[in-house]
Amino acid sequence: MKNSYLVHITLPEVFNSAFYNLIPMQRHVINELLLKRVILSYSLDMERKNVWVFIEAKNEREVMDILSTFPIVKHVKISIHELAFYDSANLVMPDLIMN
């Protein structure tokens, strides 16, 4: 059974060129994990200081294994919180109308 986790990522105070260069690779990894439904959501605040990631995993070790694939992982601070539950609005495709 998988559990839900909220991961809070604190970004660096100053983004140097090395960090900026990691962003496209980070987005690619995130998009892949979103498609696989390993990551349920990924959010960045307007100040670009905090990222929140909801992850489904068996345990905290698996969460750490997932986070280790993030290109930015060596440049950020991470805190992991196991959740009692994770609810979200279902995104439903509109009904197909066959004319």
List keywords for this structure.
28% strand; 4 strands; globular; 99 residues; Alpha-Beta Plaits; four-stranded antiparallel beta sheet; alpha+beta
Descriptive notes:
The structure is a single chain. The chain is an alpha+beta fold and 99 residues long. It has one domain (3-82): 2-Layer Sandwich (Alpha-Beta Plaits), CATH 3.30.70.1060. The protein contains two helices and four strands, in the order βαββαβ. It has a four-stranded antiparallel sheet with strand order 2-3-1-4. It is globular, with a radius of gyration of 16 Å.
User: Major sheet: size, sense and barrel closure?
Assistant: 4 strands, antiparallel
Oligomeric assembly: single chain
Spans of at least 5 consecutive residues with low confidence? none
The rough form would be described as globular
The residue fraction in helices comes out at 25-40%
Coarse structural class: alpha+beta
